[in-house]
Amino acid sequence: MGLTIGVIGLGRIGSFHADTLSALPAVDALVVTDANPAATDAAVARLDVARPVSDADALLSAGIDAVVIASATPTHAELIERAVAAGIPTFCEKPIAMSVADSAEVVRRIGGDAPVQIGYNRRFDPAMAAARAAVASGELGFITTVRSTTLDPAPPPKDYIAASGGIFRDCAVHDFDTVRWLLDDDVVEVHAMGGNQGDPFFTEVGDVDSASVLLRFASGTIGAVSVTRYNGRGYDCRLEVHGSTDSVVAGWDDGTPVRNLQPGSGFPSGTPHSFFMDRFAAAYRAELSAFCDMVTDGTPSPCTAADALEVALIAEAAGRSAATRVPVRIDEIRAETTTRTTRVRTTS
Ligand SMILES: NC(=O)c1ccc[n+]([C@@H]2O[C@H](COP(=O)([O-])OP(=O)(O)OC[C@H]3O[C@@H](n4cnc5c(N)ncnc54)[C@H](O)[C@@H]3O)[C@@H](O)[C@H]2O)c1
């Protein structure tokens, strides 16, 4: 018998995940809910295998084998904790929580062995996984530089930006997770810079529309992350890894949204990528297949809550570095977070 999976949150990514899950051989049925009943009705109308329930309470007690949490970020922490407490294997979209302190608290409460997978989907992109394997094999020599790029074609609405936690927590987290996972190494220092040339609402809500972040890894490798909300040519997500003996790139194909001015070169010649869901459709499918494997075979989580906490520490350091214009050490943020969660624990 296949799995029955609950899906909480059926907005942009949740409805996409519900569609993906419904097509996986390991999945027999879905139980779905969204705070907006119209979103629940739409999923049920679209998917034969989906049945609706009124809310997360009803879903967590509906006899499901596993749950996918894709509701808005402020709901993640509580839903992860409740699902884990009920013994239900849990997939949750990134991030765990809005603040690094709240993320640390969730990780502390659920413990290291909880069957939880966080949705950093780029780990499942075939070329990015091949880049990681190339690093691990040693065939690139020592890694001097990693560059990771996420350039969105156009900004989301003001309300989304205002509630997003800012470009480092909302967008650059994907790059932070990818480079850390790729190198199997920890970031020790972060130097970030942000800028605004687009809509004034970014400044009004205390965010930036573009940013670059330098990361120093424990090994000595330098990471360079660039992100923007204004890349008019398309959705550009790429990774370059430069080593002492060889270099590789992930994300170069005919849809790479750049105009190559090299005389005589016709590359890239296709329609530029325009949206993350098209660019990463295969990765999202592989990510949810891996989650089903974790549920059925007990395979280890391919992206643990502890991994996501490390990413939250980097994002926090980046925000602070951009605001203060000085480099920030991860140890500082980690020590503050540990102190804060210890204080919460002893006073609650
Ligand atoms: N991994 C990725 O590539 C990726 C991409 C997009 C979004 N995300 C993450 O996924 C989450 C959702 O993002 P989105 O773009 O789909 O947002 P969205 O606003 O389109 O959808 C969120 C949905 O959650 C519902 N919701 C809110 N509170 C709820 C609750 N308590 N119970 C049930 N439903 C509830 C809302 O009604 C809405 O339909 C965010 O945390 C975001 O960071 C991840």
Written overview of the protein:
Residues 129-248 form the GFO/IDH/MocA-like oxidoreductase domain. This is Myo-inositol 2-dehydrogenase. By secondary structure, the protein is α/β, with parallel strands linked by helices. The protein folds into two domains: 3-121 and 284-303, NAD(P)-binding Rossmann-like Domain (Rossmann fold); 122-279 and 310-332, Dihydrodipicolinate Reductase, domain 2 (2-Layer Sandwich), CATH 3.30.360. 42% of the residues lie in helices and 21% in strands. The protein has 13 helices and 13 strands. It has helices at 12-22, 37-46, 56-60, 76-85, 100-110, 126-137, 158-163, 167-183, 201-204, 276-279, 281-297, 305-324, 330-347; strands at 3-8, 27-33, 50-52, 66-69, 90-92, 116-118, 143-151, 187-195, 210-217, 222-228, 236-243, 247-250, 328-329. The protein has a seven-stranded mixed β-sheet. Helix 4 (76-85) links the parallel strand 4 and strand 5. Helix 4 (76-85) runs parallel beside helix 5 (100-110). The longest helix has 20 residues, at 305-324. It is globular. The N and C termini lie far apart (43 Å). The protein binds nicotinamide-adenine-dinucleotide (NAD). Nicotinamide-adenine-dinucleotide (NAD) binds at residues 8-14, 33-36, 39, 56, 70-73, 75, 93-94, 119, 121, 276.
